[in-house]
Each structure stands twice: as structure tokens, then as C-alpha cells.
Amino acid sequence: MDLVSAVEHYDVVVVGGGPVGLASAWHAVRRGARVAVFEQFEFGNERSGTSGAERHWRLQYTEPDLCRLTGEALPLWRDLERASGETLLHAFGSLWFGDVDVATNEGKISETARTMDQLSIPYEWLTASDIERRYGFAHLPRHFEGFVQPDGGAVDVRATVAGLLRLTEAAGCVLRADEPVRELAPDVDGVRLSTPRGRYRADKVVLANGPYANRLLEPLGIRLELNVFEMALVTLRQRDPRARHPFWFVFQEPTEEDTNLFYGFPPNSWQDTDHVRIGPVFEVNALSDPERATGTPDPRHVTRACDWVERHLPLVDPRPLVRSACLAVLPADPERQFFLGTAGGRCTGGENVVIATGGWGFKFVPLLGKVCAQLCLDGATTYDVDRLALPAPTRP
Ligand SMILES: Cc1cc2nc3c(=O)[nH]c(=O)nc-3n(C[C@H](O)[C@H](O)[C@H](O)COP(=O)(O)OP(=O)(O)OC[C@H]3O[C@@H](n4cnc5c(N)ncnc54)[C@H](O)[C@@H]3O)c2cc1C
């Protein structure tokens, strides 16, 4: 056998077996492409940017284009639910409240309300007293206001990943666990890849390796302005298991130490539990390398989140049951939210490398997957995501 025929060849190779990589593989394999996914750990691992039971599903964004995209993601979620036979989106409302003009990575309450007005997305405006009376919050500053958007809620993370794994495998996609891609070498005809187990060739590569994106891009002369944070997640017990509140996110002025933002889920509607998960969203202490993650949350961040709950959410016992951490990978430019596009113009053969990383991306999983598959198989996407494309190289 000569060396060329020894190299396995695929139409599409996906680097990273998280939800975005699996969704890209599913959309590509459904269209008849020969697809392989390489995952450095086991599939379904919770060591990178995806962990825990749930992620916030919301229609609202401050930016109208992202707001439209969540609407476009919805039918793709329904399609995935039909194919996997599971309910993945659970709507119990999305409550944003606090200082309405505070600008955060999540957005700004006042501007988001304007965007929802423009796009005819329904919501109810609430005062601090309304929020306290209706949902059991307490001692909120009197100037706090916000809205509840009834179609928001949560995505079932584990059912999504498990469903995508089943679907990709059943459709004939090659799934390679414990096989990290060490190097990419794009050229005008495709991309060569190497792993500790072999060498491969693909017409197109999807880079869906979350916090590790720059590790494969830097040798190609490309560096995405991304920050990686190890964010705390805390599990608590709800005192009254029957009480129900929406997903909530509180927008507050930053303190000297941190971004002062907290969120929480109600007990999962798909699990019989009185546990709730809360978290701080502190963009502090960015990691210089995702490998430096410790897997344990900063105790101060856990305390800050539990203190907020103790003061403002008497419905929940503030003593932590479980403390965990997960890698959030956010573009340094908060306006951008995501990197989604090809590396065309950035290196030889860059048009053959499709990149999807960054941002609060779980809610967009099936859409990101479809966009990546379209960019691989059609060279263009039908979705309006130009703004998320890689920036043009800066001239020296
Ligand atoms: C605390 C926290 C809360 C969040 N909350 C929300 C939310 O409420 N709503 C929302 O929409 N989003 C939220 N997000 C973001 C969302 O979870 C992520 O956008 C999404 O899970 C990322 O999925 P992914 O497939 O892109 O990346 P990942 O899940 O990070 O998967 C990347 C995979 O690539 C693998 N990999 C890396 N390098 C290689 C390599 N060289 N070769 C092979 N494999 C490799 C990794 O092992 C990993 O399995 C949150 C994130 C965090 C951390």
C-alpha cells in the first residue's frame, strides 16, 4: 500500500466532539457527506465548555441580528427534537432584571426591550415589587426593573449531546474518541490533519474545539481574540419544591472585584429534583491556556453567588450542595459574541477551514451546526452571520 492510499480521506472532518461539532457532523452527514469527528477525550465529556444539566434558552438579544438568529434556531431545535425523539427545549420563561442600563456580555435590558418591540417578540415589563411578589425574590433595590419573556427557559444539555451522538453514529459518521488533532495543514485542495494515531485528509475541516481553537490556529498565523474563564456553577436546594420561577439573570453595576452578574435556573422540569443551579458570570482571571483550568471553582465566586441568593432569593437554601466549574470562552469584543466563518484569506487554504467558537452558544447549537455544514458543502450559508466572520488580518 502506498503512503497516499494509507491516508484516510473524508469530505468533512470535525475537530471537537462537543455539541457544536456533533451538530455540524449531523448536518453534514445528513446531506450525504463522509464525515469523521475527532474528540481529544471521550464523547459527552464535561471537561471543556459544556457541562451540567441545562443552559439558558432565550429568544431575546440586544443585537437585532442575534435576536433573529434565535428565532431561526427554533425550527432547527424542533427538527432535532423530532429526529432524537426527545424534548430538548423547555419553556418556563426568561426573566432579566436589575439595572436596566448596565451593559454586560449578556446584553443590556433597556436596549433588549427595544429590540423585542422592533421584532414583535412578546414580553412583560416588571418592577422590583412585581418581581418580588410574583417570583419570591426579596430586598431588591427599588430601581430594579426588567422583563419576563415567556418563550425562554432551558435546553437539556445532556439529552442534546446524547441525541446528536446517536444520530451522527446512526447516519454513518465516524466518531473517534481519545484522538486529539495535533496539527492542521490546509492547502488549496483541502486540509491534512494529524493525530497521535494517524494522518488524515479532508476536503473541509470544521474547527469546533471551543477554548482550544487558537492552539490549532496559531501555527497557521491566526489568533482569535478570545478570553477563556473558568466559571463557577453551584447546586443548591430549593426550600419549597413546588415553587416555580423562570430562569433569572440579574444585571448589576460591576464591583471593583468582579462583574457582579448572577443567574439561576428553577428545578429541572425533566428531572424529579428540588435542586437548582445558580452561577456568577465573572469575567475575571482569564486563563492564559485552557490547560491551566483547575476544574474547581474560585471559592470567592461561589460565596458571592450564595450570598446573593441568601439576600435576595429566600426560596432557595444558600448552602452549596455541589460546586463545579466550566470553561467559558468569550470573544474579547463583547459586541461580537461568536467567531463563525472560514479562515479564507487568513492563510493558504483557509477557505477549507470553518471555525465555530466562542460565546453563549448552546442555544444556537443546531443552527451553528447547519451553518458549518453549509460552509463546508456549499461554500456559503443561507443565514445572516457575516458579522460573526473572522476579522480581516491586521496589516503590520
Ligand atoms: C458556565 C457556563 C454557562 C453557560 N451558559 C450558557 C447559557 O445559559 N446559554 C447558552 O446558550 N450558552 C451557555 N454557555 C455556553 C455554551 O455552554 C457553549 O457555547 C457550548 O457548550 C460550547 O460547545 P462547543 O461544542 O462549541 O464546545 P465544547 O463543549 O468546549 O467542545 C469542544 C470539544 O473539543 C474538544 N477538543 C478540543 N481540542 C481538540 C483537539 N485538538 N482535537 C480533538 N478534540 C478537541 C474538547 O475536548 C471538547 O470536547 C455557557 C458556558 C459556560 C461555561
Give a structural overview.
- Helix 2 packs across helix 9 (365-377).
- The chain has 9 helices and 19 strands.
- The radius of gyration is 21 Å and the shape is globular.
- Strands 1, 2, 9, 10, 11, 12, 18 and 19 form an 8-stranded mixed beta sheet that branches. An 8-stranded mixed beta sheet has the order 6-7-5-14-15-16-13-17. The protein has a 3-stranded antiparallel beta sheet with strand order 3-8-4.
- It is 26% helix and 29% strand.
- With 396 residues, the protein is an alpha+beta fold.
- Residues 15-21, 38-41, 45, 48-50, 55-56, 180-181, 208-212, 216, 231, 233, 279, 326-328, 359-363 line the site of flavin-adenine dinucleotide.
Which ligands accompany this protein? flavin-adenine dinucleotide
Question: Proportion of β residues?
Answer: 25-35%
In CATH terms, what is the architecture of the largest domain? Answer: 3-Layer(bba) Sandwich
Number of helices: 9
State Rg.
21 Å
For the record, the count of structural domains works out to: 2
**Count the strands?**
19
Q: Given this structure, which CATH class of the largest domain is correct?
A: Alpha Beta
- SSE topology string: HEHEEHEEHEHEEHEEEEHEEEEHEEEH
Assembly context of the chains: single chain
Label the overall shape.
Answer: globular
Provide the CATH topology of the largest domain.
Answer: FAD/NAD(P)-binding domain
The CATH superfamily of the largest domain turns out to be: FAD/NAD(P)-binding domain
Q: If you average the pLDDT, what whole number results?
A: 95
